Amino acid sequence: MRPITTGRPKIAIVDANTLAALGLKQLLQNVMPIMTVDIFGSFAELTANEPDIYMHYFVAMNIMLQERPFFQERQRKTIVLTLQLEDTARLSEFHCLCINQPEPQLVRQLLGLAQYAHGKGQHLPPFPKILQQKILSDREIEVMSLIVQGFINKEIADQLHIGLSTVITHRKNIMEKLGMKSVSALTIYAVMHGYVDINKI
């Protein structure tokens, strides 16, 4: 008998590297807060837990290569975790995510995957109501947009013709209102809500 699942779509991370899997889980939950993310340390663990209930598999390259027939059959759902960008050319039939890169690039690649695979997010379930609401003022949205594009506080102050201390206050308020602690999380929020184009980050 199938277990009763909650309405939240599920993502599986299949990777023996627990630290990498936990870090990826955190990023995925920032990119797609409506998802439930489960971690499996091996392919056997995944197959013992109803693998076909998952919307996507983020799978370590070595596991995918060992179990290629399974993932080949589920190619559209599979994202292969690689350690170098060159590997993505060898696995051209799969979506790939290089996890061995600086956080801003990894976030950008994840956002690109989410937008490409889900038609600019149209095929994803809606965000929770609290995250759909307009929480920030227009000025805070302007400041946030410039932060995620990589501008420093002084440059933001100059562009918006406001004082440096005002920028710092806005920055603090934005983080507090959204409950975020990093620029990466802020970048994800800004792109997913259409406040900044992914090509500008």
Poorly predicted runs are 1-6, 118-125
Order of helices and strands: EHEHEHHEHEHHHHHH
Query: What structural class is derived from the secondary structure elements?
Result: alpha/beta
Shape: elongated
- Distance N to C terminus: 46 Å
CA gyration radius, whole angstroms: 19 Å
Mean pLDDT, as a whole number?
A: 83
Percentage of residues in helical conformation: 40-55%
How would you explain this protein's 3D organization?
The protein is an alpha/beta fold. It is 49% helix and 12% strand. It has eleven helices and five strands. The protein has a five-stranded parallel sheet with strand order 2-1-3-4-5. Helix 6 runs parallel beside helix 11 and helix 8 packs across helix 10. The longest helix is centred in the middle third of the chain and has 15 residues. The protein is elongated.
Task: Give a concise summary.
The protein has helices spanning 18-31, 43-47, 61-66, 68-73, 87-90, 103-117, 129-132, 138-148, 153-160, 164-178, 183-192; strands at residues 10-14, 36-40, 56-60, 78-82, 95-98. The chain has 201 residues and is α/β, with parallel strands linked by helices. α5 (87-90) links the parallel β4 (78-82) and β5.
